[in-house]
Amino acid sequence: MGKIPFRVNPMLATLVDKPFSKPNWVFEEKYDGVRMLAYKEGSKVSLISRNAIDRSARYPEIAATLGKLRIDTLLLDGEVVVFDGRRVSHFQLLQQGKGQPRYAVFDCVYSDGKDLRQEPLSVRRKVLEQVVKVRGEVEIATRLANDGIAAYEEANKRGLEGVIGKDSGAPYTEGRSKAWLKIKINQQEEFVIGGFTAPEGSREHFGALLLGTFQNGQLQYVGKVGTGFDEEILSSLHHKLNHLVRTSSPFSSGVKEKKATFVSPKLVAQVAFTERTTDGKLRHPVYLGLRDDKAARETEQ
């Protein structure tokens, strides 16, 4: 059995404010799922999350499909997603176990004994298309229009989360890079849970989650989210939060909630919202799910 002689941290895109077009750049669908590196060494496949946790047992069908590929050693980069009926990915569907998880692969870092990290993206994509065919729970990431503005318009019409622009001549580098740029369409972000309010009326467990982001090492309060929960989620989340209860607020800024229970800032929630107010608070937030693939400090802005 062949072995891949290294492990990598994934290459990450840098957020930009508006759509753009550049020569020799390509534009892909931005998926709303969980980032995953796939290491195939012989028949053994390891699915490794962004925070280096092996998730092979969580997605056995994906691992089994990759294990059947006729190549001894392979390192792929992609996103585990669940699509709705319009082929739009939603993290909430994945998190709640609704639908069949699929692995949308957008990069090939190592193939058949060859390290491809220094090869340009155009070469890595060709290798990817040669070794991975659309089969079972694995597919190749969708390319949009070659023009970035047109790609953004296409993504907007389809209701996608956003667009990823990539320099086709760039190597694969670990960590945040300006060779990959992302433009969001739907407002979704990860926020740290710093507390919760007491339930009211017929609701049990808690009323709303108190959210924040780290800025210069301090947790800044950005508001609360009280929608997007069913009874099962309320109960499960409340159980997790009770293990993190603390007496003092983790927020550096004041929280004007009389019945707040504060928790250690360990859990990360993905939240959709319409916009931010001038003082940085969230408008019309909706809870989508917990991110167990990201650490609280990764919300640093």
Keywords:
301 residues, six-stranded mixed sheet, 19 strands
Characterization of this structure:
This protein has helices spanning 60-67, 91-95, 121-131, 148-158, 231-242; strands at 11-15, 25-30, 34-41, 44-49, 73-81, 102-111, 114-115, 138-140, 162-167, 175-184, 188-197, 209-215, 218-225, 245-246, 260-263, 268-272, 275-276, 282-283, 286-290. The chain has 301 residues and is α+β, with helices and mostly antiparallel strands. Strands 11, 12, 13, 14, 15, 16 and 19 form a seven-stranded antiparallel β-sheet that branches. Strands 3, 4, 5, 6, 7 and 8 form a six-stranded mixed β-sheet that branches. A four-stranded mixed β-sheet has the order 1-10-9-2. Strand 6 and strand 7 (114-115) form a beta hairpin.
Count the helices. How many?
Answer: 5
Strand content: 35-45%
Number of strands: 19
On the 0 to 100 scale, the average pLDDT is 93
**Largest sheet properties:** 7 strands, antiparallel
Oligomer: single chain
Distance between the termini: 43 Å
Radius of gyration: 20 Å
SSE sequence, one letter per element: EEEEHEHEEHEHEEEEEHEEEEEE
Helix-and-strand structural type = alpha+beta
Helix content: 10-25%
- Uncertain segments of ≥5 residues (pLDDT<50)? none
Molecular shape? globular
